[in-house]
TrEMBL record:
Highest taxon, organism lineage: Bacteria
UniProt xrefs under PANTHER family: AT30094P, SPHINGOSINE-1-PHOSPHATE PHOSPHOHYDROLASE
Naturally occurring in which organism (per UniProt): Kosakonia oryzendophytica
Keyword Nuclease in record: no
Catalyzed reactions: di-trans,octa-cis-undecaprenyl diphosphate + H2O = di-trans,octa-cis-undecaprenyl phosphate + phosphate + H(+)
Residue ranges of every copy of the Phosphatidic acid phosphatase type 2/haloperoxidase domain listed in the record: 61-169
Any one GO molecular function term: undecaprenyl-diphosphatase activity
Protein name: undecaprenyl-diphosphate phosphatase
Keyword list, A-Z: Membrane, Transmembrane, Transmembrane helix
Keyword presence, Ubl conjugation: no
Length: 202
């Protein structure tokens, strides 16, 4: 049942040689480069912002990092327990993005961006979480469209992201303050000169 749905959705989404070249190019950008919003936004939240909000922003960045780490561990475990060939490895549909023929379930790209989006929905603002969820859906669509993932790989990534955020919240309640103090001390040591010059926040 699920596998039949997986194939049906894949054939509905997957590009063909007759698909618009501009759409394939946009999907290539979304599939490979759009994920860079994760480290860029995390760095921005850590280094800059209103002085009254910097502590909250940095705690958010640490919680998100914890959630992504947990989610990727869950993802690796699921990929080992439930290996699944990528569409092009099964000679299904069309492939427009070079990728190693490793296990596709769940998607690592999807896991990272969906964990990021769920984290912002839960711990930041609804509007930021919604924008990141739209970004996540765009990345998910692009990787199915280009033929390197199945739709259910992306659903699995979303569920893993939710689980990663729930686990990170539990870990934060137990260890969060100590982790924050340690990371803050390391940051101040490593960024002493930029902090002193006012380039980044203390």
């Amino acid at each position: 049942m699920l596998e039949s749905l997986n194939y049906t959705l894949f054939y509905w989404i997957n590009a063909t040689p007759d698909s618009p070249h501009g759409l394939i190019a946009f999907a290539g950008f979304a599939a490979s480069d759009l994920i860079s919003i994760v480290p860029l936004l995390a760095a921005g939240l850590w280094l800059w912002g209103p002085r009254s909000q910097v502590t909250a922003q940095r705690q958010l960045v640490i919680k998100v990092a914890m959630a992504i780490l947990v989610s990727l561990c869950f993802s690796a475990l699921l990929g080992h327990i439930f290996p699944h060939d990528r569409p092009f490895a099964d000679r299904v549909g069309y492939n427009f993005l070079h990728h190693a023929p490793d296990s596709s379930f769940p998607s690592d790209h999807g896991t990272v961006i969906f964990t990021f989006a769920v984290a912002f929905l839960a711990w930041h603002r609804v509007w930021s979480g919604v924008l990141l969820m739209i970004t996540g859906l765009t990345i998910a669509w692009s990787r199915v469209y280009l033929g390197v993932h199945w739709p259910l790989d992306m659903l699995g990534a979303l569920l893993v992201g939710i689980g990663g955020c729930l686990t990170a919240q539990i870990l934060w309640q137990a260890f969060g303050p100590a982790i924050y103090r340690s990371v803050q001390q390391i940051y101040r040591l490593c960024f002493a000169m930029p902090i002193r010059r006012g380039w980044v926040r203390d």
